[in-house]
Design brief:
Helix Hairpins
């Protein structure tokens, strides 16, 4: 189990934009979820929670009916929901969304979910 947590944490560190450094391995994907919801990275600081939230939100523009309470406290969900209504982000192409969520990071989400 410790091995799985280590792998999960490593992938989450790369997936979450706050923790990526130039020496990160593997390199971050060329398409970033920041294009869809740029404010999210400043609202969700835990890399594993960030990965989970990205998986749940996906390309949805109206996130009011999504179940984020299973991941985050109600106050955080409220802030994210309100922020999502005014985001400058645009939906990603389905291929780009798939790259963000699954290119090297799907196993983290699967292990940590």
């Amino acid at each position: 189990m410790v091995g799985h947590l280590h792998v999960c944490w490593l992938h989450a560190c790369v997936f979450h934009p706050f923790v990526v450094s130039p020496s990160s391995y593997p390199p971050p994907p060329p398409i970033s979820y920041r294009l869809k919801f740029p404010e999210l990275e400043s609202l969700v600081h835990n890399p594993v929670d960030y990965a989970r939230v990205v998986k749940v939100i996906g390309n949805e523009m109206d996130i009011t009916d999504l179940d984020l309470e299973s991941i985050l406290p109600p106050a955080a969900v409220m802030v994210i929901t309100v922020t999502a209504t005014t985001t400058s982000g645009k939906p990603l192409l389905q291929d780009d969304l798939d790259k963000v969520v699954w290119s090297g990071y799907g196993d983290c989400i699967g292990l940590c979910w």
